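re: that chain from earlier
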Amino acid sequence: MKPKIRLALAGLYHETNTFSSVPADYNTFSIFRGEEIEKEYGNSLTTNAGYLAISSSYDNVDIVPLIFAITGPIGTITKDAFDQIVGELIQYLEDQGPWDGILLSLHGAAVSEEYSDCDGEIAYRVRSLVGPDVPVGLSVDMHANISKKMVENTDVLTVYRTNPHLDAKERSQECADLIVKTINGQIEPVMWLETPPMVINIVKQYTGDEPMRSIMSNLLAVLEKPGVIHASVAEGYPYADVPEMGMGFLTIVDSKEIGKDEANKTAREGAQWMATRAWAKRDDFNNDIPDPDQALLFADAQHNPGDAPIVLMDVGDNIGAGSSADSTHILAEAQRLGIEGYLQTLYDPASVQECIEAGVGSDVSLKVGGKTDHLHGSPISIEGKVRTLFNGKFEDHRPTHGGFQFYDGGLTAVVDTTDRHTIVLTSLRCGNTSLEQMYSAGVDPTKYRMVVAKGVVSPRPAYQPIAKKIILVNTPGVTTSDLEYFEYRRRRGSLFPFDRTADYLPSRQNQ
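^ sequence. v structure.
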């Protein structure tokens, strides 16, 4: 009988928008421990689901879920939250060890008040605890700002290959499989990270279109090279003002198959080949999308009776990238232009409460949205009737961005306005990544001329199948596509496109 392999599963998952005014304190995190992790994620398509599933591929592997903390993309993690969560994570590892391997479920773009590279710091603390001989695996989001510290303190690091993220489970299962093979002595992974000085605009990160489609084709070519067991492209996260911000290219090679020297050479050449080809396309990642008035007028002219809705992506209020969820910039223009048949969500707990007090079927006059800060517009006056109220909890078993199954928008009110708009008001920030958000509230999005989805790529799996056309809209906010708007203080100095004279020379040492 094969000896049992015990793998610990633990993580802190947060995409930090350092320009957001909403801090990620301890109370913003949902924390799952032990069996709660399997109950929440076991049937999903998330990173955790992939880790949990590896035990079904081996008859001698036990996955022990310890702790997983997650909150939606908002501002910087407070020192107290980081210390409490990571302290508990390390304590669990220490108390329930020894371990044959560790599986870390991290985002890759987390920032705390104390650490600009939270994910690297967590990996470092785990490595310091378990020592150099216990394999550590890490699977991260495609928006990760991959750091040298992450690579140095793990044996296997994998990255999603799709944006929208539809392969989170597949990538983490691959990571876990490589860790098991490392434990069994079947492989000896060698990794090389290459980080050219370039940041790519969020509006050009959809992997189904150019230029990212070609970048991902390059990755597939690297996978064909002898000894290569994994390759990754991280698009980076431009709203985290950290030195690590930018694209990352990673190759993993089995040194047991081709020897350590050749493995290092192959890993380096693979990562640098991908990076060099991406660098040559750097000008293709520019921002070139319309403002709200241009987008609305174009959509209005394009839509004919009986057409499917035109979906407007509110880039500056990208909830999945840490925005406020209450931007009113597009709504204000829709009112000014007299646009009808318009649907969108707004985070506005106060207005939800007013609707609850008024009751279903009642007429209301509200000032909605624009209440988080001064970046996302002003509150907009609306008049209308409360159509429905519901608790905001819904689930989706179809493929969604990130593979999540359970969602919660908090107490939710649907208001049909006198100018033929429908506004779905939520009490919690909840991204527009599932149509069930609408259907559960009694709203059929296919019946509208225009639907606003607050995001760039993440709403596509839900909304692209019902859309006549998708239009990205350049709006102000903490996720605006105008990166020149932000005052970066910690990024690398010579970094494209901020410095158009920046140059890339492949590194001689592993980054």
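The chain has a mean pLDDT of 96.
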